[in-house]
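Deliverable D4.2, example record:
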Amino acid sequence: MLRGKKIVLGVTGSIAAYKAAVLLRLLVKEGAEVQVVMTPSAKEFITPLTLSTLSGRPVLCDFFNASDGAWHSHVELGLWADAMVIAPATASTLGKMANGIADNLLVTSYLSMKAPVFVAPAMDLDMYAHPSTQRSIEVLKSYGNVIIEAAQGELASHLNGKGRMEEPENIVGQLKDFFFESRELRGKKVLVTAGPTYEKIDPVRFIGNYSSGKMGFAIAEECAKRGADVTLVAGPVALKTPHPSIKRVDVESAAEMYEASVSEFPSCDVAVLSAAVADYRPAVQASEKIKRASQGMTIELEANNDIAAALGRMKEPSQRLVGFALETNNGEFHAREKLSKKNLDFIVLNSLEDKGAGFAYDTNKVSIIDKEGKTDYPLKSKSDVAKDIVSHISKLLMLLLLMLLPFTASAEGEELNATVTLNASKVQGSNTEVFDQLQEALVEFVNNRKWTSNTYEEEERIACNFSFVVNSYANDGSFDCSLMVQATRPVYGSSYLSTIFKYEDKSIKFKYQPFDRLEFIEDNLDNNLTAVIAFYVYAIIGMDMDTMGELGGSEWLNKALTIANNAQNLGDAGWRAGSSNNNRYSIIDDYMNGAMEPVRKLMYKYHRLGLDTMYKNADNGRKAITESFDLLKKAYEDRPMAYFTKLLTEYKVDEIVNVYSKCTPEEKKTVVDILSNINPSLSSEWEKITKNNN
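Output generated by the structure prediction step:
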């Protein structure tokens, strides 16, 4: 979602300008506030009225309004926006942006922009391939702009090639990625050292090495892309730092790099020491060029300060320190020695013995070594190696957060972020437009309503999916649908998602007319559809909070129970107490029944103390999960037909088998005995646990 984001959309004079209307509609649909700025020639391809109607704002084209003299301030736009998107961007506009030719409001707005700028070129294939266009694109990249590459396909000339503006859906996807999905280092400060150091012998000679700085610069760029504020202390290299979140400090000698690093480190969360720092410097630096003599020359060297060792001594418990090792022999031995002596959290080892790795190359082959072990990576581009290294840093920071900030039920938690799909596979009636509008209304209702009073972390969303299948539909707006709803929560410190709820609702009856708003009032449940959705939302949030703190979801689960109680007068079978052992009422009644309290406590023990802990301590995490099955056994004995025994066996079967792939025979026997009794239909799956000897 882009809710609350302020975006300036620049539209230029290209036939692809018609796509700007689609892009604008998608941005508004995602919740963004959009201000359109057009070049004069763009009005020849799409009218300002169209874009104004879609954005809800007057379109800006000229520096001032000719009728009343109102000034359109490009400076204010630059301060207002969270991002600028120029789509389509013609060759002319690219050239003007690259060279600062500010002859229209769009380019002046770009030159005043404080926020990130995304540029989506669109033109014929020969224009796109022309060296001048490619030079403009490279210049704009060097300024820190994000270029959304043109796509292959049929062009306005009816030729086929590269030059099509990227599809609006993909542009919105890149914006969402930028703002949310890969911003796990937002708020973090990262120090990166890169490049060689030069130790002067005299004004024209130095002792140095072959480091190009490419690896360190790639790491700095990747950290910045993931949201970090980066300080890059760079030795003498010929590289640019295009990302606006990178503060560059240029140094030459090891002493200068030492001073800059020691000064910056106390305010940083992470330091990555990738520079190839000279270990020694001349004891005496000649003030004038040393003249050649017939006899030999001896230079006395003295040791430079050890930056890694100094920062290792300074390091606080909340900081993380990453080192590099470049070895020609016994690499792992020397790297582990350095890891211990210098108080590093992990070390990146690369070897000059590997072809394509080391100094000057655009590729590298590394191993990441920490106290837990060693991970070897194949030869990759240095930008891809940087991704591996920064992902390892992100994991370290997540584990640190878990150690320093234990979760409780009242802690800031997860914002519901559901996707809703509607499969109109059986249409009875001619009004097919209603399906698209219902789809939009459902997404709006689920994602944009404030469901709880909690303040939720931006990156901590409940991943939830509502998938509808239409069983029948009539022209009077009567729907009969089935619904599959599934929700997952992240396993902290990993990319794995664990299922917390999964259910198929066989029949939901409701009425919906085109352009109806879906509104939910807790004491007025006239709309059965909103009552059903609200019920599942509250149940999911409650179960998720149960995983974060023991019985932590009571507030939301009680709301779901209230909906089920109040909704029984709607006449739908899914709300009738006792009508079925597998309907909405029975699900929440089972879960909130006192006999099911062990299962609610299980949610916390299984997920928070179990799965989350396994990424720090596998034995402790698995022990907690084993204890959780004792709670499941107790609940099953009291209410054997309860839905949640199915959830915790059938829907987690692969997860459970994987958890117990490496544990003691006693643990395996305990869990297999319990699960085989509760769900014997899966006995072949449970047998995998005992047969797995890994």
